Amino acid sequence: MSGTAKLKETAWCPGCGNFNILKSLDAAIEKTGVDRKRLVMVSGIGQAAKCPHYTDANVFNGLHGRALPAATGIKIANRELTVIVASGDGDMYGEGGNHLLNAMRRNIGVKAFVHNNQVYGLTKGQASPTSEPGFVTKIQTKGVVLEPLNPLALGVAENCSFVARSTSVMPEHLTAMMAEAIKADGFALLDILQPCVSFNKINTAKWYKERCKELPPDYDPTDRQAAFAAALKWGDEIPVGIIYRGARRSFEDMTTALAGEPLSSLGG
Amino acid sequence: MSGTAKLKETAWCPGCGNFNILKSLDAAIEKTGVDRKRLVMVSGIGQAAKCPHYTDANVFNGLHGRALPAATGIKIANRELTVIVASGDGDMYGEGGNHLLNAMRRNIGVKAFVHNNQVYGLTKGQASPTSEPGFVTKIQTKGVVLEPLNPLALGVAENCSFVARSTSVMPEHLTAMMAEAIKADGFALLDILQPCVSFNKINTAKWYKERCKELPPDYDPTDRQAAFAAALKWGDEIPVGIIYRGARRSFEDMTTALAGEPLSSLGG
Amino acid sequence: MEANIRIAGEAGQGVQSAGELLTSAFHEMGLHVFSTQSYMSRIRGGVNSFDIRISDEELHSGREECDILAALTAESFAAEIGKVSRGGVAALDGDAGPDALSLDMTGAAKEAGGARMVGSVAAGIVFALLGYDSAALKKMMEKAYEKKGPEAVAGNEAAAEKGAAMAEGHRGIIRTPQPSARSGELYSGSEAVGLGAATAGVKVVCSYPMTPSTGALTYLASVADRYRIVVEQAEDEICAANLICGAAYAGAAAMTTTSGGGFALMAEGLSLAGMLELPIVIMLSQRPGPATGLPTRTGQEDLLFAVHAGHGEFPKIIYAPGTIGQAYEMTRRAFESAHKFQTPAIVMTDQFLTDAKKNIPELPAELDLVDRHIEKAPSADYVRYAVTDSGVSPRALPGGEAFVVCASDEHTEDGHLTEDLTARKAMQDKRMRKAALAAAEAMPPEFYPEPEETVLLCWGSTYGPCREAVDILRAKGRKVCMAHFAQVWPVWAGAGGALEGRRVVSVEGNSTAQFALLLRQCGAISQFDSILRYDGLPFTGAEIARRFKS
Amino acid sequence: MEANIRIAGEAGQGVQSAGELLTSAFHEMGLHVFSTQSYMSRIRGGVNSFDIRISDEELHSGREECDILAALTAESFAAEIGKVSRGGVAALDGDAGPDALSLDMTGAAKEAGGARMVGSVAAGIVFALLGYDSAALKKMMEKAYEKKGPEAVAGNEAAAEKGAAMAEGHRGIIRTPQPSARSGELYSGSEAVGLGAATAGVKVVCSYPMTPSTGALTYLASVADRYRIVVEQAEDEICAANLICGAAYAGAAAMTTTSGGGFALMAEGLSLAGMLELPIVIMLSQRPGPATGLPTRTGQEDLLFAVHAGHGEFPKIIYAPGTIGQAYEMTRRAFESAHKFQTPAIVMTDQFLTDAKKNIPELPAELDLVDRHIEKAPSADYVRYAVTDSGVSPRALPGGEAFVVCASDEHTEDGHLTEDLTARKAMQDKRMRKAALAAAEAMPPEFYPEPEETVLLCWGSTYGPCREAVDILRAKGRKVCMAHFAQVWPVWAGAGGALEGRRVVSVEGNSTAQFALLLRQCGAISQFDSILRYDGLPFTGAEIARRFKS
Ligand SMILES: Cc1ncc(C[n+]2csc(CCOP(=O)(O)OP(=O)(O)O)c2C)c(N)n1
Ligand SMILES: Cc1ncc(C[n+]2csc(CCOP(=O)(O)OP(=O)(O)O)c2C)c(N)n1
Ligand code: SF4
Ligand code: SF4
Ligand SMILES: [Mg+2]
Ligand SMILES: [Mg+2]
Predict the structure, then answer these.
(1) Do C90 and C20 reside in the same domain of the chain?
(2) Ligand 1 centroid distance, CA of D386 (Å)
(3) Model pTM?
(4) How confident is the model at residue B3 (pLDDT cuts 50, 70, 90)?
(5) Is B217 on the interface with C (CB under 8 A)?
(6) Same domain, yes or no, for D425 and D471?
């Protein structure tokens, strides 16, 4: 085994949605023909954030909540790298909320795949920003009273260049969405609904399966008003698919200092 | 002069929009009959953030970007206080972005009045999150390439309970909006377009005057789709008024430990 | 007479529940207990273990070897079998080979009602091996599973019985301490911190979850109704720090709980509390770093960071409880000092102490409010930052008769921002006078049993292991004592005098002897030796004694 | 022979432009110059001042008194009139009373083309009072206003002439240094830091604006095209710290610029860089705290915080340039060391140094890249965190033949996270070996002129004032020298030996003598006296000499 091969054994719970996400990720990488040597998987801290260690790729597993700034730095330093962030809902929507807002604004060519299990897994079951109202935990003993964060609506509101949702319970769909995100120019947000068998007894695989429905074929992701309506849908039916595509140029293309050879090739 | 009277002299530039905002604030406090002894003005750091010092009120002038968490703590400790945050666009939309998102989610009874001059004033003219694309500064030497943050669309997307816009160039309107925000239950975001005569030569008083138009009387701020459309409007016409009212209960009302006398009255 | 029992297995197998159950049962029987936990940063799989040390005398720490190992997986068996003491016994749920007991614990659990009861089977085995009657165990099971219904109680009891039956042939194989009267109550370090805060009058707790600080947060949430506390999960640690500053300003005793990385994010807020003279309390529960490090392990690596954290210069008070009882007391004291000196106070714990459980004299659970030192009727010319001789200014709350104005910029006495550089100096001097005052009132260390030629210097959770090491070394005739500092900042002014002429050996859970460096920074010592550990595990008394060189 | 000229007025009146203009003009004429700025945290109003000290010999600091005061407002006149030296002269734009010149500068400016040219009128007055010919001033005006068009040039020249004419009656009232050959080039501390970084090869600069660090950021933005640098404004300092970690990982030399509060927010990211062994550079430009403090003033209050910042233990290298030349050199060295030891390096400056301008030998502006120590052809079994004797592991970049894996959790040599506690210890030891290595290569202090009985200990920007104090004191026969540390961490191992037997007087811009405490923490000194200043203004040589007690 080469010293830098991926970890063969995961630290995930049997039955966790993360496994499917990992499989879809591998499939999407194959499908899009991404050169793994030029692929950097970035994450923060959490159960989902361990994902990069289980991929054959370069890995930057940084701080909780700070995957996006690190990924941005990586992409700026070497824009020839494919930079994928695979991390949790707490990581990207909680601690990392400001960076998400600004990655959208910056439209940096980073793909954010958010393993959204609507709970803090690694720290044993506290509410995450996407936990449903009423969700009871050892901290939220009377149930969550905060309005869940809607990452998709946020993306539409901030004219994010790519906003999509999929779920680990629809692995092919997930692979397709990941591939679309990778192919898209600029920043891409892919929210991936994922069961956590250990701490989320509400939003189970069954729950997601019953609700997640693909957007109709005539859905137009460039229609911002329609996208906003789609982004707000939650409940008995949860749309999955490409919710929105903002018409934007990427940060890399708008930054003159990034024309030419990668910055990382300059230096002593 | 009592030791705790307001500062008589401001540190603002002559002609600055902040003066009108301060006047409207005073008018709105009078209009709503807020007891100044029970009023706490909270801010972070910036030119706008000096505002609390020029009001007759209690003042918590904290850290750059952190006005909202402090205000939240104040409101939790004593829900009988009226808590108004008066601070800048850099403060609340830049450094404080994550707190804004979460103040909306938490629906804490704090009123955020954002003096939005689309620039960093105190630090001498760098781009703020709301600076327009192409805005040239000593840091953004080729002009801003990031998409401006849209705080109103953000509010609509996150179902914020009160989202409004006004401008220092329409002082009566501003007073009315402030009064509405103060009267509303839960968290209120009021974005106030304000000229900065020293560093923003684009978005001048004239520029705002020419563009800001009140929403039509039949506009329904509870219609979320319409609100989203209104929030996106920018350019030749910029709507001012109450953009959105999310149907929400306040954090104070949903938190059992906050029933009864203020927490601040308990203790040795 | 004592014994150390270890339950080991995967995360998610119920190692912790079984351990908790045994701990309570032993305590209920009238044994002294000290339990510790060692676990991985994952939810399922891996190797976790739970130690319950029992004795007929008071205990102060854990032990590296165990006398009974009950392993629920082959992996954990392999990891721990080398640490079974001579004369000890090991059992594995599976084929353990010739030197240990192979017991089909899962099979027994299934028969009793389900594989997830395997921990109760193990508990039953342990009781039999120790030669104890399972009555106490059953009593605890009733209590623990009451909420889950009579079936759960019956199932677990059956599982324990089956376990006891499986090990019956080896009953009493271990020499065991004799139970006497049930003494004191069981508390974990987390609970003690939480209870200390609750009784002191904390009203606002705002934190972002982070191991190993989450235990105290969870405990506080569990008693929030009883004490009327708002426990709010923040979006990040920066919010937490600033929110409690706001709450403290408005008059509520306020606190946050965190660990190294979260504390780092709070450094700016800490400086704010110093500037605004706000009584906030931070529990900093340490784990090994840098960065994410070993998130579920123990360490004492953040001392110098904590002492110097925050830009600019301002007073700060830091306690580092050594025992579970001190965790309660020092947390209360942190609230007291924070309010007395109007400045932030920190309680430094670590994974070892927060997760450890021990029976100690019952901690008062009634409200016993610390004085918030509030000026209830400020005069007409009240100013928040009056320059006083002591440096402490009368503190009024907003909402009363006087405006309370504060600014993170330098300010005049009335709290408004100023650029008058003379006022600046006066204000900085005023703030730093509080540091001098706090220093004058700093706690002396505990010398155990009394000052000696050689001093094992320690702070925080190393108390127990160090104290045991002193007992071991003194039994061998070494002139050794312990000096434990439960307050690490400001350093007690008498430290230099008390340590003068003695050999100092600093025993610390870090790689640079930070506390000794701090004492040297203060001019209290010049030379020192050290015994350091930073692999993520706590010291044990035996280890310190072994590594001690005269 | 020397003179100190002060222009004072409101923010927004052009005090700074006039000061810059005079500074360049004096330098152009062939004088030695040292300029400093003192301003408030506001955009208009208040009292700002700009000092230009001129001499026929090299200068090292500013002075408290001035020989010429040109005040543009009554308020600034009142604030500064007491600081005019005996034999000096003051002029006010308005009625100055009997002891100073009342000159209608605004009137003259209006005549010349507009009130906003009042600064140029003042500059003309200054030139006349000094008895200098305005040619050099006009030359600089041409340069400064070229971009604004011929009208601006002509207007300002006319303003200067009117100013000179107004003061003609007092021409040469001041004894003035004689210009000789134009020597060296003018740089501010900010420019020197920026140029050092640019020539060293920085490719990614990510910062959030914060006074007084913004100058270096602005400078870097202004040369971004020339050196091909991405200068990106972050949404907050946490982004900045983590973004440069990512950039450094991917191979770009990367840096951030900040001040105390922003640095506090970066503490977690600093710990990350320590754990991932990333070569990041932070310029920390100090101002007085705590919290927002005095945002536009100077101080040296963040030393102990910086040295211990970040949770856990990891190596860190900190420079504190004392001069503008050193600002360039130490920034370059920070990049060198960060890459050599693969760990974060910090350059500590402050408002005084970043805003100061002085003529020094021209700094090389060509790229002179520091070695990034990159393994270009990693072998098939390459691992990022190989445990080596030195502690430094061969560093490859992602995108090449080998995967580069890194984790903020403790990790094995291949960079993957681990909970193997033996691996943990090996990895922590490996990292800390780099600290030892860095310590062995730490810079000795500069003794000026040579070691003496009494040592004025200093670090960072206090160099100049301290050096001047030594000159003053030695002229009085005192056996005093300066020991200036341009590297403050790790502390040079020889410090103890070099200072032994000497009296140490620490001269620092803080209230607790932090550097002396740090030296004592390291065991290098035991006793010390101190001369401290923390009102937001820099020391002057005369002040130190005055406050020095034998
Ligand atoms: C600064 C900081 N705060 C808190 C933590 C503790 N922490 C680690 S992971 C996590 C939450 C994980 O939740 P999520 O991102 O949803 O990932 P999941 O485990 O659910 O996949 C927290 C709070 C940390 N590592 N760093
Ligand atoms: C942590 C931190 N970072 C940076 C700063 C510097 N700073 C002070 S105010 C400000 C921006 C102010 O812009 P804005 O909030 O829009 O207020 P304005 O001055 O325009 O009213 C900045 C960057 C600071 N005080 N603290
Ligand atoms: S805790 Fe939840 S999210 Fe984490 S691995 Fe287990 S099931 Fe998956
Ligand atoms: S800098 Fe701009 S925002 Fe600030 S006071 Fe001046 S005009 Fe107003
Ligand atoms: Mg999650
Ligand atoms: Mg602004």
Answers:
(1) yes
(2) 28
(3) 0.98
(4) low
(5) no
(6) no
